[in-house]
């Protein structure tokens, strides 16, 4: 058989056959006097096996191992590895589709590329136009993307997110947008913000959260706020660090 006849018989392209020759997967056959390759039935059988193995998802290197003599790997071992890899891919695809389903179920205009746990948490929060609340949402989204929060923390945040009284705290922080860092409203707001974080929620926060974030992140976070607001946030952070040491 000529290469075109072999390709048609097995159902591959002549280019694939030449590539298999190039990488040493398919032995070069003898050539006729005119220089054309002359393929036999054994070549067709071998090529058909290569095709079947690649269709199963084996790489050419894995196919070479399977086709090798004593030094080769057993086909069953290779297929078991392939099956395990496909199972992992299947699980990953299932999880991605689950996350997409949560996003697609969100009201128009409220779709955020976040984890299902954070999406469920954000859905509990009352609608608000508070700039401070919007910042908190952004910070949670960042924490979520960085993998710094888990379902335990989101579950603990649930009651707080759904509490309408929290909106009042956000509004009080918004009111400090043009205030001085010596504004007398700051101490009271700091105390109320700290008190709003119940023990279960505080316990759900990773113990090394402050250390992991680093001083650079802390300064960048404070820079997001007006001076008086930043002072509130700074004092709240210090209160939580002290609480963690206690």
TrEMBL record:
**Pfam families in the cross-refs:** MerR_1
InterPro entries from the UniProt entry: DNA-bd_dom_put_sf, MerR-type_HTH_dom, MerR_fam
Q: State what protein this is by name.
A: MerR family transcriptional regulator
* Protein's UniProt keywords contain DNA-binding: yes
Q: Which residues form the HTH merR-type domain?
A: 1-69
Enumerate the SUPFAM superfamilies for this protein: Putative DNA-binding domain
Q: What UniProt keywords apply to this chain's record, in alphabetical order?
A: Coiled coil, DNA-binding
Any coiled-coil ranges, and where? 72-99
């Amino acid at each position: 058989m000529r290469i075109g006849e072999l390709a048609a018989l097995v159902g591959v392209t002549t280019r694939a056959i030449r590539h298999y020759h190039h990488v040493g997967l398919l032995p070069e056959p003898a050539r006729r006097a005119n220089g054309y390759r002359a393929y036999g039935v054994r070549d067709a059988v071998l090529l058909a096996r290569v095709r079947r193995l690649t269709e199963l998802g084996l790489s050419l290197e894995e196919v070479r191992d399977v086709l090798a003599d004593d030094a080769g790997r057993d086909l069953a071992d290779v297929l078991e590895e392939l099956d395990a890899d496909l199972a992992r891919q299947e699980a990953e695809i299932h999880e991605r589709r689950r996350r997409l389903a949560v996003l697609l179920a969100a009201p128009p205009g409220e779709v955020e590329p976040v984890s299902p746990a954070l999406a469920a948490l954000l859905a509990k929060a009352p609608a608000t136009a508070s700039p401070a609340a919007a910042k908190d949402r952004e910070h949670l989204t960042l924490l979520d993307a960085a993998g710094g929060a888990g379902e335990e923390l989101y579950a603990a945040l649930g009651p707080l997110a759904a509490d309408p009284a929290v909106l009042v705290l956000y509004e009080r922080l918004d009111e400090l947008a043009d205030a001085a860092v010596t504004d007398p409203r700051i101490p009271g707001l700091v105390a109320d913000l700290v008190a709003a974080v119940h023990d279960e929620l505080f316990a759900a926060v990773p113990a090394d959260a402050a250390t992991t974030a680093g001083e650079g992140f802390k300064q960048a976070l404070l820079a997001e706020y007006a001076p008086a607001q930043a002072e509130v946030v700074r004092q709240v952070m210090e209160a939580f660090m002290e609480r963690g040491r206690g």
